[in-house]
Write a structure and sequence with these properties.
single chain, 4 helices, 61% helix
Length: 90
């Protein structure tokens, strides 16, 4: 049975190319949605600023942030989607 989440971080090692074809892209997207929803629900826009800084400029942090730094556009796009969806629903 094929998994919905790819098990490789290299696009050439996966069966398909494109949107969400690597584990790194999926992880960055899920984190972006989660941060977007939390930011919108709490109104903590400082969190949004910190997230953008982490995606685009930060060299600090742990290895857990590597996926977000390597796929910042997935993270930021899904962050905006999470904010928009939460704003429309609430």
């Amino acid at each position: 049975m094929e998994s919905l989440i790819p098990d490789s971080t290299d696009e050439s090692a996966t069966e398909r190319d494109g949107l969400l074809s690597t584990r790194r892209e999926v992880h960055a997207s899920v984190v972006g949605i989660a941060v977007g929803v939390v930011t919108s629900m709490t109104g903590s826009w400082e969190l949004a600023g910190l997230f953008v800084f982490t995606c685009l400029g930060s060299k600090l942090g742990s290895r857990h942030l590597t996926d977000i730094r390597r796929e910042p556009w997935y993270a930021l796009g899904c962050f905006l989607g999470g904010v928009l969806a939460t704003t429309l629903v609430t």
